[in-house]
Every structure is written in C-alpha cells, then in structure tokens.
Amino acid sequence: MSKNLIALFLLFLSFNISAQEQEFKWPEGKQMALSLTWDDARPSQVQIGTDILNKYDTKATFYVLPGPVYDQLGGWKQAVKDGHEIGNHSYNHPCSGNFLWARKNALEEYSEEKMELEFEASNEKITQMLGVTPTQFAYPCGQTFIQRGTETKSYVPLVANKFKSGRTWLDEVPNDPAYCDLYQLTGVEMDGKSFEEILAIIDAARKDGLWLVLAGHEIDKGGLQTTKTKTLEKLLKYLSETDAIWVAPVGAITEYVRANRELE
Predict the structure, then answer these.
(1) Count: domains in the chain
(2) CATH code, 204
(3) Neighbours of 240 (CB within 10 A)
(4) Which one Pfam family would you cite for this protein (predicted)?
C-alpha cells in the first residue's frame, strides 16, 4: 500500500472515530433525557397517578386502549387538560397467543391490514373521546411481529408509517439518541422497583447521555405490574431537584432527537 493510501486510510479512520465520539447534545446543557410512560389506561393511572405527577408538574405519556379510557372518561379528559400526552396502544391489545388471554387477538393470526385497522380504530375512538389524536405508539406486550414461521413479519414499518415513534417493553438498556430507531424505542420497566433501583438505572444513563424511557402499568394497586407510589414520589422529587435531566413526554423528546441528529 502506498504512503498516500495509508495516509488517506488513517485520515478516514480518524474521522470515523471522531464522529463516533461526538456526544449528542441535549437542550440547556442537560446530561440525559427521561420519559415516564404507562400502558393500557389502567384506572389507577388517573385515579392515583396523575395527581402525583401534577404535584411535581411532571408530564407523562400514557399509551391507552379506548375501552378503559371510556370507563374512566372524566379522569382521562382531565389528564389531557393537565398536559399529559396520550399515545396509541392499539384497539384490542394483540399479543402472542402464548398468552392464553390474548388467544382471540393473537399476533400469529394478524395480517398487516388487520393491524392497520387496529391503529385507525383506536385513534378514531381516542380522538372522539379526548379531542387529541395520538402520534406515539407502544407495542402491546412489547412484541413487534405478526404471523408465524416463514410468514413472520415485523410490523415496525406499519408503525413507522402511522406514528412518530414506537416503544417496546421489558428492555435492558436506555436509548442512544444519536443511534436509536425511533420506532423501536426501548422501554425499561419501572413496575415493582424501588427508587434506589431506578436511580441506579438513571445514573448509568446519565453517564452516557442517553434517553431513558421508563414504562409501567398500575400505580399503587399491588401485583406484579405496579409502580409503587412511594417510588414514584421519591423519583419525582429527585427529578424536580436536579437540573441535569430533561424530563418530558415521549413525543417532545422524539421531535428533539429527530431534529438534532444526523440519521434522519
């Protein structure tokens, strides 16, 4: 290899390493971003959760199903007035038929057309009831496939065509804003965790400048899928007292990420 080619190669390598080391810049000198999200429109979210969030002037993203919204319509209308974001979580909550309760709406039996109808029917009902049209989506059970075997397909492209982001579930890592697929945002479970456990996750994300999307279900109702009110109170107090973390709904951070990185 000639000296000129070697020099060109080294220059190229240096450029790539430099580009990889460039840090994504959060607004106002923030060191990371954090979104609080809950799924399913469980009654406890508006009976208990929104009052706690409002106490600390914190806005969350709620990925809802139309049926449970109707059952607590007054509470959900108030949540919208309070500035919380409403996302789409499908109409019938389709998951793998390995969940026996989901067998009537098994992803293994879904077509692309049927999934699109889920999106549209849910958005239509939510808009009718709450006066807002969701632009963010959360995959029921965090599963992103339809059909089975050699016919298996990802429905991430359908979400990408309909929404501005999609969030999964039970993930192990936060999102790298400079690299992540906005239609497969990772959702890290906060149900059942203590404040100290969540703080450890936050500290790790903060060190690397990441976007942590915490995901829950019930609020202070007991059982496995429950965000403890004691944990939530401590977490919100901590977040209200630090200037290092940008806390905002998924939609707001999605828009910022899209506008401030090179992948789009």
Answers:
(1) 1
(2) 3.20.20.370
(3) 12
(4) Polysacc_deac_1
